[in-house]
Amino acid sequence: MRNLTLLTDLYEITMGQGYFREGKHEEIAVFDIFFRPNKLITYSVAAGMEQAAQYLENLHFSEEDIAYLRSLRLFDEKFLAYLKNLRFTGDVYAVREGEIVFPYEPILTVKAPMVQAQLVETALLTFVNHQTLIASKSSKICAAAGGGVMEFGLRRAQGADAGVYGARAAVIGGCVSTSNVYAGKLFDIPVSGTMAHSWVMNFPSELEAFRAYARSFPDACLLLVDTYNTLKSGVPHAIEVFKELRAAGHEPKGIRLDSGDLAYLSKEARKMLDGAGFPDAIICASGDLDEYSIRSLKEQGAKIDSWGVGTKLITSADLPALGGVYKLAAVYENGVEIPKIKLSDTTEKITNPSFKEVWRIYDRKTDKAIADYITRAGERVDETKPLELYHPVERWKHMTVENFRVRNLREPLIVGGKRVAPVYSLKEISAYRAEEYARFWEEYTRQDMPHIYKVDLSEELYELKRAMVQESGKGA
């Protein structure tokens, strides 16, 4: 694995030297990763924890790293000697990859000596922000399609790593395959793909191009039919080659549409394929698709069986950044927690103090999620008593829940610098996402005007936050 210890912002290291000089470098600190509300975020799918864990377990400064830092003439030799022996020795608590998460919920928490906790901020945000963003976009696209989505985005990704880990996140979100062969090998993802228009253009005729491809892949023949004229040449030539394949003892796979009026073309192509005796030949569509265009195509009755989605998925085109943040929640002095809070004139930017837990509340009759409940660590939710839930800001909005069960969304990922959580395969993570997604009412996950899912603070946490905000008015 690559050593990514220097994958950080300079100020993380300069603050580290400052803590070192002030004797605060071994002070235990608690930092939370969470994201704030956005009009485009109805829910998110947590991802990137696996890469975060690998990074933390491998954290160390090489001789070359130390030499580079020395060359900057910013750091003294005592601090560089300290960094030379630095390893991550802290604890990490996180939701499972594939978990459905909402704004303000601490999806990953670091509890570690201050220098360590500060140093890893940037890299952890990189892993979690990017993969959570793409997994969330994928989930919404796959929900609109109803399945059968192939990730085709590598060539449009913002760099090679974004393409590779974006493909991983897309599968967590529900994609069934990727065109990215490297990601396929690395993460055991099924790979898929057909031909480019250049293949068809490199032969004297479209028919000859189709026949050549069929000779190479007689049992996986899926032909791109829109290079010249989809309905007048592409589909008829495909049918001609399909008949030749069948006569030779092979069955064709189908056709791909990449441009034009996909609703109309797919319906007409379906009629032509069925009429020629190929009702099982699939129709795949690609071409700047996303959840909005896919839903529109389905509403128009498009006869599309699978969807190749690239640019707008791998870049999350309508929301290109999740905006996750890493905020200090507490420090410990002589083993005693001292809660910390970031204040702001903007209410949404005031953080939730203290070491916290996140509980999901399910209705026992339907097993559907009702709300999430953020508490201070050590608090327990009594399932035998009615629970009052309040809006975290507009406290006059409240509800009472009864006959419910709760689940702690987070589990230890790393303890004492060593991984303790299981390593899940990508298939297991994707299956977990689908299972948990099914426990939410469609009103919370729908594309248009979704119902706002309730995320509440426990009375103890709310009162702590209120008291700290009030105290700040007396002068911080």
In short:
This protein has 476 residues and is an alpha/beta fold. Helices cover 38% and strands 20% of the residues. The radius of gyration is 26 Å and the shape is globular.
Principal-axis shape equals globular
Mean pLDDT: 96
CATH level-two architecture of the domain at 10-133 and 320-355 and 408-451: Alpha-Beta Barrel
**Order of adjacent strands in the largest pleated sheet:** 13-12-1-5-3-19-20
CATH level-3 fold name of the domain at 10-133 and 320-355 and 408-451: nicotinate phosphoribosyltransferase
Gyration radius, in Å: 26 Å
CATH class of the domain at 10-133 and 320-355 and 408-451: Alpha Beta
| Helix/strand/pairing category | alpha/beta
Helix content: 25-40%
| Number of alpha- plus pi-helical segments | 17
Number of strands: 21
Which parts are unreliable, with pLDDT below 50 for 5 consecutive residues or more? Answer: none
Q: Span from first to last CA?
A: 44 Å
Tell me the major beta sheet: 7 strands, antiparallel
Which band does the percent of strand residues land in? Answer: 15-25%
The CATH superfamily name of the domain at 10-133 and 320-355 and 408-451 is: nicotinate phosphoribosyltransferase
